Amino acid sequence: MEILNIEGISKTYGANIAVKNLSLKINAGEVYGILGPNGSGKTTTLGIILGVIRPDSGFYEWNQKINSLGALLETPNFYPYLSLQQNLEITALIKQVDFSEIDVVLEKLALLDRKHSKYYSLSLGMKQRLALANVLLGNPQVLVLDEPTNGLDPQGIADVRQIIIDEAKTGKTIILASHLLDEVEKTCTHVAVLKKGEVIKKGAINELLKVKRSLIVSSDENERLFELLVRSGLFEKVDKKEDLIYIDLGDNMNSKDVNEFAFKHNIVLTRFEMHEKSLETEFLKMVK
After folding, report:
1. What pLDDT, in 10s, does the model give residues 217-243?
2. Alpha helix stretches (DSSP H) within 113-243
């Protein structure tokens, strides 16, 4: 079941393009990561789908069967001189949730022993935990989280990741924005990679993280070699640019097969260069 459909949304601030013609479809039960460096349009995208920011063009549509949504967008607002319990009571009243659920979410975020502490006395990491507790209050069907591990120590990051995984196991749909590939890889089922407001890659995380192996080869008989490689149908993709031939090997072939293929047709390779590409490689190139 489709939970959210985003079609061609764009948003500019003066001369700055925050989001450009962005389209995504998010289905029920997916943990969908929106990955990109700071300034890539992640928060603007979440702001638009939450109705906080109006897009210049395009539209988005939530499934009408959704009856509850919890969101963490940028810095949450709490009353500094109220306790954690009191702050969550305000949220519970707004969400029409029984106060008994407050202890449940505080325990889940390891904050139960601080329930009577004033908000101002919390560390940055604890404030982030409280923000997540606030989101989980009422057991929403869909979670929209903007950098949920921001400000947390390594143990806190691991704990929040586990909470996201556990919430997903209950069938919830989670939309998660992050600039950390590791965070997305460990928690998400699907990902869209943003660069300057545009989607440059999207799909199932296991497919995008899969290492794609390719070869660059050449020979003194390039035209003949290229035609033989294409006609063979053995390789996923074969391209030719100037004096180089680019071969995507696919899952069933390796570099040795290419060498043997050339030898079988009495062609000597003058260049033989192996490349491996993955989402990690592309993401690291993107943020440089």
Report:
1. 998 888 999 999 999 888 888 998 888
2. 124-136, 154-169, 181-187, 205-208, 222-232
